[in-house]
Amino acid sequence: MEFLDLPPMLGAAGSVRLPGSKSISNRVLLLAALAEGETDIRDLLLSDDVERMLEALRALGVDWRREGDSLNYRVCGVGGPFPVKTGDLFLGNAGTAFRPLTAALALSGGEYRLSGVPRMHERPIGDLVDALRQLGADITCTANEGYPPLHLKPATIRPGGVVRVRGDVSSQFLTALLMALPLTGVETTIEVVGELISKPYIRITLELMARFGVQVGQQGWERFVVPGGARYRSPGTVFVEGDASSASYFLAAGAIGGGPVRVEGVGRTSIQGDVRFAEALEQLGARITLGDNWIEAAAPAGGVLKAFDLDLNHIPDAAMTLAVAALFADGPCRLRNIASWRVKETDRIAAMATELRKLGAEVEEGADYLVVQRPPRLQPAAIDTYDDHRMAMCFSLASLGGCRVRINDPKCVNKTFPGYFEAFAQVARPVPVLAIDGPSASGKGTVAARVAETLGWHYLDSGSLYRLVALAAMRAGVAFDDEAGVAALAAGLPARFEGGRVLLGEGADRDVTDEIRSEACSVGASKVAVLPAVRAALLDRQRDYRAAPGLVAEGRDMGSVIFPDAGLKVFLTASAEARAERRHKQLIEKGLAANMENLLKDLQERDARDAARPVAPLVKLPDAALLDTTQRDVDEAVAFVLDLVGRGGKSSG
Ligand SMILES: Nc1ncnc2c1ncn2[C@@H]1O[C@H](COP(=O)(O)OP(=O)(O)O)[C@@H](O)[C@H]1O
Ligand SMILES: Nc1ccn([C@@H]2O[C@H](COP(=O)(O)OP(=O)(O)O)[C@@H](O)[C@H]2O)c(=O)n1
């Protein structure tokens, strides 16, 4: 399975241009297709769901073209029902294509088959089918009654009078009926049965129908009158707003990660209900500023979001973002009236509860609510995304909690926001890592410790982990070449680093600081470090040292394997003779016996082993600054590295 590892983030600030709204894009495409005249659509969303709609329209005889590589499309309307009278349409997992097309095709007098991905076949459509059957449509659910796939056959449509449709499972059923009924030319009243959910989406539908010339009469949220003789007419040019649901991730990032983060493409004048996500964030204490076409969010004055108890029925999609934002609130948070989550791309209530728990949260899950209580500290987790773009996008925010987050199947964001993770990287600032790699006795430990102290950053001496493993192997009588045996020791190594001391044992009761520096441990470390299973066992443990405000990590593969995304990389080296001399001096000072000739030979052997091993060999990376200290003292080396950090990793030479 593909995955994306997000490092712990320090904070978020900046600005993002939003992709077009999915809800508006697919509605406008259908309306433009059914309308008289040509429609120029600007800033259309390019994503899987929109692709499904475009393909379907082409198959149904609608001529459209994209202007070059732009987001501008021209659609030649057919001025009534679809001209192509047979078709087999695959609509993926695009609810915004499946539901409205079902209604429009049922009233088009042809024979059509509509299907989607397996999850689409688990998402209910019975309420819409029932409503269309009242109008005389001939629709068969070919697998399970009430669910796609569907088989539509020509039938005598009897419009007029009253059609009843349930509004409490998905508002898309009402949207689909509203958009299709003008095809009949007869005044028809729709009566909504049950409490209509997600009302703002109906507002988008009515607003866009009006732009295409059809004014629907409205009595509360219970009755809608589609006028007789109404026809869709192209308004000429339509601009698609930025996606307000997609805006929620960035606004939340600003509220959690300091901010300000600005989204461009939606604002005060937006017709999308999800802009009200900004109001919800405001209730959590976030500082929100609105322009006509932008919204900006920053953290509360006190830094921490307030716990909340909110009815989120009006913003079901953006509300998912609040479930993750709850990890940053100062108490238990309740998300109410979100039953529609259960019939979306996945059962979002169950999925959300499962994944939030992986991060350590306590979650109570109800039929139509969630209660989320954050843990004292988030724990790193691999998040499953259930082929649900919003799961992937909202869990990226957990990385602002200072822990690593792995997003499985990150490409699922293509449904609505193919460039999501690039946009997130534009505003989220990773905890900085300075990776110092180089051969033995080049001065990595000395330089790294001093730089870490000067910057106030954490320090990882990765070599000591391999030394500890070697020590543990010797103690347990496990041979250095017994890969599985040594890896098992490495995985369960009970070690702690405290104030320059290295402590071993369950109760961290044995101080092994000096013991692991012995030549036996040095040789052993170099041998066990060759074993891939040992390196794998130590991978996550090393990554967990990355914490605010920053980390200085030294070893052999800090820049290549452990922190390949480190913004600061140094390759520290010196001639073998200079290094052997330093090691000699170091040992003599410690009162240990040392022989220059043996040291040089041993060091050259270790250099060769480190450089030649197939897994994580020691190499100078192209993006690492070279620091040769053969002719430089410690102060000069430290100054070189600090200067590099000051320049954000760009070496001057
Ligand atoms: N640039 C330098 N010039 C001279 N001696 C150095 C320099 N850098 C480090 N040393 C000394 O060399 C010895 C080995 O350095 P150390 O930091 O332990 O290397 P490493 O971590 O790369 O094995 C230490 O005694 C250290 O004081
Ligand atoms: N990131 C790292 C760090 C150390 N090592 C190995 O672990 C051994 C001990 O590392 P160290 O940094 O304490 O060694 P010295 O450079 O101090 O001799 C080295 O000889 C390397 O073979 C590694 O493979 N990868």
TrEMBL record:
Its EC number is 2.5.1.19, 2.7.4.25. It is found in: Cytoplasm. Its main location: cytoplasm. 3-phosphoshikimate binds at residues 22-23, 27, 170-172, 198, 317, 344. Keywords: Amino-acid biosynthesis, Aromatic amino acid biosynthesis, ATP-binding, Cytoplasm, Kinase, Nucleotide-binding, Transferase. Residues 435-645 form the Cytidylate kinase domain. Residues 13-423 form the Enolpyruvate transferase domain. InterPro entries: Cytidylate_kin (IPR003136), Cytidylate_kinase_dom (IPR011994), Enolpyruvate_Tfrase_dom (IPR001986), Enolpyruvate_Tfrase_sf (IPR036968), EPSP_synthase (IPR006264), EPSP_synthase_CS (IPR023193), P-loop_NTPase (IPR027417), RNA3'P_cycl/enolpyr_Trfase_a/b (IPR013792). It comes from the Bacteria. The active site is at residue 317. ATP binds at residues 438-446. It catalyses: dCMP + ATP = dCDP + ADP; 3-phosphoshikimate + phosphoenolpyruvate = 5-O-(1-carboxyvinyl)-3-phosphoshikimate + phosphate; CMP + ATP = CDP + ADP. GO terms for biological process: amino acid biosynthetic process; aromatic amino acid family biosynthetic process; chorismate biosynthetic process; pyrimidine nucleotide metabolic process. Gene3D superfamilies: Enolpyruvate transferase domain, P-loop containing nucleotide triphosphate hydrolases. One of its GO terms (molecular function) is dCMP kinase activity. One of its GO terms (cellular component) is cytoplasm. Catalyzes the transfer of the enolpyruvyl moiety of phosphoenolpyruvate (PEP) to the 5-hydroxyl of shikimate-3-phosphate (S3P) to produce enolpyruvyl shikimate-3-phosphate and inorganic phosphate. Belongs to the EPSP synthase family. This is Multifunctional fusion protein.
